[in-house]
Design goal:
Elements lengths: L2 H26 L2 H16 L8 H15 L1 H6 L15 H37 L13 H31 L16
């Protein structure tokens, strides 16, 4: 790979990784209002015998948002579970070939289908101004459903980065240099 192509590949990987890194760091802060809402509910329910109608709904909406929007960051940091009882014995280039193959065969097509369905699901929810009918509070659910296509777009972006790293490894037979940190818990 010549210098210009390497630079373009490296720039694309860094850009995608930066988006995933910052989206993950920003979304990580959702844990604070979620914990506050849950703690408030526990306090008023068990200390003052006066439960709220909103805290449970806010908590599960924030957790759902946290979980979905944090998926790309988790992929960046290799935090997803991988069953590698055979994979770990393969050479670096072979692992990159396997990863690239499965990104192309399952990851991207699956996410694109989910994005298509999720987008239609979200638009319909906005048109209907959908609310959660199982709650006496009837909170709007369409903002939460908007998170679905956003999370899928973030996962697609990070998938592009991971595929770029596979291409780098296939060509150079070495891992792509980490652009976001060590990935260890000391970074988080």
């Amino acid at each position: 790979m010549d210098g210009e192509r390497y630079f373009k590949l490296s720039a694309a990987i860094r850009t995608c990784d930066t988006i995933s890194l910052w989206s993950g760091k920003i979304v990580g802060w959702l844990i604070i209002p979620m914990c506050l809402a849950l703690s408030y509910e526990v306090l008023v329910r068990y200390v003052f015998s006066s439960p709220t109608v909103w805290a449970y709904d806010v908590t599960f909406m924030l957790y759902g948002t946290h979980f979905m929007l944090g998926a790309a960051y988790t992929l960046l940091t290799q935090g997803h579970i991988r069953t590698d009882f055979l994979y770990r014995f393969f050479s670096l280039r072979t692992r990159a070939l396997i990863d690239a193959f499965f990104y192309g065969l399952f990851y991207f097509p699956g996410l694109l289908v989910f994005l298509w369905i999720g987008w239609k699901f979200t638009v319909q929810s906005w048109v209907l101004k959908e609310r959660i009918v199982t709650s006496p509070w009837l909170p709007p659910v369409y903002p939460l459903k908007t998170v679905i296509p956003i999370a899928l777009i973030l996962l697609l972006i990070q998938g592009i980065s991971e595929l770029g790293k596979c291409i780098y490894t296939i060509i150079y037979n070495e891992e792509y240099p980490n652009t976001w940190g060590t990935g260890g818990y000391e970074e988080i």
